[in-house]
Design brief:
5-stranded mixed beta sheet, 4-stranded antiparallel beta sheet, elongated
Length: about 575
């Protein structure tokens, strides 16, 4: 287990608060670089307050080539965040908060994910990005070129900027596929470079050995993590059995000492730490005084605290956040085994969420619905964009048109207090979020006329039976008012209208059935009364005939009596 020295992890916190997040023009609700911050946590402190039931697609934008991971920052001080991303069509795109193009910059090759910093600490933001044309570009907020620095290899990763020497300005760090790490001043002049002898990832920054000085961390394609200790340029490495994506620096256990979290193509998630140890000692004596001292020989290394094995390679950077608000951070990472994992700070699995595609993109973490428990946001190889709750159960998803490889970004684009989610899939940018409510009222009046004919044949003592037809006509008028809240103006309204129409038809059918049934009962009662009336008439006829017969008999008897007399 790692040794805890009890030091407070000040350097990284100060870096994130003063060097990036609160720089002029950059707010907590922005996403100024890939993986959100210099430590690559993928976590945003910003929050919004709307139900996930109201989440939907707001807008899209199509480029002419595959696009990079997006970022979002207010670069022109218009109180809304601009959206920036690169593309394989050699363009850097800058869109407004409504996903409308503001301007583009044409490079000589495909453009990597940009980053935005205040290089001169003068309240003006600069845009940095690399390209397959071997160049690193610096532009101002209007797209005007400030300078270009050329290397001997393509630049496929993102640059970062940080204050390494306590000067007022930031230094720019990036790696090139010529297998070197470069450090430039804000004017684009090289300060120094460092040979890596391998292709490496976007640098992460943190104070790994808690000495108050920043260190540079790099993943690589030669299966190693590299940590460069500044200012001495000592280097530590950690060997795995697969390619190492960009690492994360975070204090996950509350000890005050930072950990390094990283995945590997060997399928393992690693938690590493800086370790000092003694190996032997040297006894030194003063030849004049005879006094002797023992000097212990100290060594340092990057050691493993724990690892967790998935069923396939991990090719993306983990995210780190305190999902359950217990003061200890969880690690969220996807794997090529078609699952997203939530791992505790001690390396125990909390949740494995299985999907139908490989998880190739890094997750983003933010509290979208204001419940003080952040959501997990990620895409997958099946083209589906997922939002999970803090315990790893799905809250929302959306199917895009292509594989999702790039990490999402989360930002309040229009500064309305609600966060939007930006996602790259193929050559299309998707923006998801909350829309204003629209009330749609629908009133339907339905008239139903039902005619029931009942024919009844009543036997009588006459030769011809009596047939009576009863016709009952009923008109039913039903007025139904439907109020539908159109949450999205896109898809939910149609669903709600379909459900409403279905309910209306069901109600109407019930009314018709009830009317028919009631009328049938009424008709039956009418028929019974008619039959009774007919029976009464028949009895009256029989009695009348009987009376006539008796009268005739009496007349005949009287006539006979008269004849005898």
């Amino acid at each position: 287990m790692k040794k805890m020295n009890g030091k407070i992890f000040i350097a990284l916190t100060f870096l994130l608060l003063s060097g990036v997040i609160v720089s002029a023009g950059i707010m907590d609700s922005d996403w100024p670089m890939i993986y959100h911050d210099l430590a690559h946590t993928g976590f945003s402190n910003a929050t919004s307050n709307f139900s996930m039931d109201n989440m939907d697609l707001l807008s899209t934008f199509e480029a002419q080539g595959k696009i990079s991971a997006p970022i979002a920052v207010d670069i022109n001080n218009d109180d809304t965040a601009e959206i920036l991303f690169g593309s394989s069509d050699n363009n850097l795109y800058v869109l407004n908060s409504n996903c409308e193009e503001l301007w583009t910059y044409k490079a000589g090759g495909a453009v990597s994910t940009p980053a935005v910093f205040d290089l001169w600490n003068n309240t003006k933001l600069e845009i940095l990005f690399g390209s397959l044309d071997n160049k690193l570009y610096a532009l101002d907020a209007n797209g005007t070129e400030i300078w270009v620095y050329e290397t001997n290899g393509s630049i496929t990763t993102s640059p970062v900027a940080v204050n390494l020497d306590n000067s007022p300005n930031l230094e720019i760090l990036f790696v090139s596929n010529d297998e070197n790490l470069y450090v430039l001043n804000p004017h684009g002049k090289k300060l120094w470079d460092y040979p890596l002898f391998t292709r490496a990832t976007t640098p992460a920054i943190g104070d790994i050995n808690s000495d108050g000085k920043l260190d540079i961390l790099l993943g690589s394609i030669n299966n190693r993590l590299y940590v460069i200790d500044l200012p001495d340029l000592r280097i530590w490495s950690f060997q795995t059995s697969g390619d190492v994506p960009s690492p994360v620096v975070a204090n996950i256990d509350g000890s005050g000492d930072p950990e390094i979290l990283m995945g590997s193509g060997d399928g393992h998630l690693y938690s590493l730490y800086y370790r000092e140890y003694e190996r032997g000692s040297v006894r030194r004596c003063n030849e004049f005084t005879g006094n002797c001292t023992v000097e212990h020989i100290k060594y340092s290394t990057i050691a493993k605290d724990w690892d967790y094995e998935t069923f396939d390679g991990i090719v993306s950077t983990p995210a780190v956040a305190d999902l359950d608000r217990d003061g200890r951070k969880e690690i969220i990472v996807g794997s090529r085994d078609k699952a997203l994992y939530i791992i505790s700070n001690t390396g125990k699995i909390r949740k494995r969420y299985s999907i139908n595609g490989r998880v190739l993109s890094s997750p983003a973490i933010a509290d979208l619905d204001g419940d003080k428990k952040p959501e997990i946001i990620f895409g997958s190889g099946d083209g589906i964009f997922y939002i999970l709750n803090s315990t790893g159960f799905r809250k929302w998803s959306y199917e895009t048109d292509d594989v999702i490889k790039e990490p999402p970004a989360v930002a309040d684009l229009d500064r309305d207090g609600n966060l939007e989610v930006l996602l790259a899939s193929g050559n299309k940018l998707y923006v998801f979020g909350y829309k204003s409510l629209h009330i749609v009222e629908s009133t339907t009046t339905t008239s139903t006329t039902t005619t029931i004919v009942i024919t009844s044949t009543i036997p009588t003592t006459t030769i011809t039976p009596v047939t009576i037809a009863t016709t009952i006509t009923t008109t039913t008028s039903t007025t139904t008012s439907i109020s539908v809240i159109d949450i999205t103006n896109v898809g939910y309204l149609n669903l709600l209208l379909i459900l409403s129409v279905g309910f209306l038809l069901f109600t109407l059918s019930f009314v018709i059935f009830d009317t028919i049934y009631s009328n049938f009962i009424l008709a039956k009662e009418d028929r019974r009364r008619i039959e009774e009336d007919l029976r009464g008439i028949s009895r009256g006829v029989l009695e009348e005939k009987k009376k006539r017969k008796i009268t005739r008999k009496r007349r005949k008897g009287k006539m006979k009596d008269e004849e005898k007399n």
